[in-house]
Specification:
Blueprint: H1 2-10, E1 13-16, H2 17-25, H3 29-55, E2 59-62, H4 71-80, E3 84-87, H5 90-97, H6 112-130, E4 133-136, H7 142-155
Parallel strand pairs: 1-2, 3-4
Helix pairs in contact: 1-7, 2-3, 3-4
Length: 159
């Protein structure tokens, strides 16, 4: 949602990696993961990141949380733009993503809440290491977040 708001305000195109992956694979992400596994999904994701990041300029690329776990993805994204990390409280993250049917479980043994907590703890160093800038979003609405990003990008002369 924030990526679409940014694209609207900045009059540029928005690419959703999840949508690009789904189009390329010809099936939904949960189907890819169920039928082919997480390793295959990450291979498809890597190819899509490479393709999109090499072809687009002056655009917003909306990435899933796992994309920055692959150093090749990070290098490709940083080569063509800036990486923004949006942080939030665990409770708010769960509230925001719990109804996303396109989000398959990473592990079958944990509850949704336990999995999100584990993922945050495990991925935080990579998230922060990949980010050019970080925004705490727990108490902000999507438009407020988008405007904060734009202000920062203008201040840094990135746009």
């Amino acid at each position: 949602m924030i990526s679409k708001i940014l694209a609207d305000i900045l009059h540029c195109r928005c690419y959703s990696l999840d949508k690009e992956i789904t189009q390329q694979a010809g099936k939904l992400i949960p189907e890819i993961v169920e039928q082919e596994g997480w390793i295959r999904f990450r291979e498809i994701e890597r190819g899509v990141v490479q393709q999109v990041s090499s072809e687009v300029r002056n655009s917003i690329i909306d990435c899933g949380g796992g994309v920055v776990m692959d150093e090749h993805n990070v290098a490709n994204l940083r080569r063509s733009g800036k990486v923004v990390l949006l942080t939030s409280s665990l409770e708010k993250i769960i509230q925001r993503i719990s109804r996303d049917s396109n989000r398959p479980p990473l592990e079958g043994k944990l509850s949704f809440e336990e999995e999100q907590q584990k993922v945050l703890i495990e991925r935080d160093p990579q998230y922060r290491g990949a980010a050019d800038c970080i925004f705490e979003t727990t108490h902000l609405e999507p438009r407020q977040i988008a405007l904060k990003i734009i202000i920062r990008f203008k201040k840094e002369r990135w746009i």
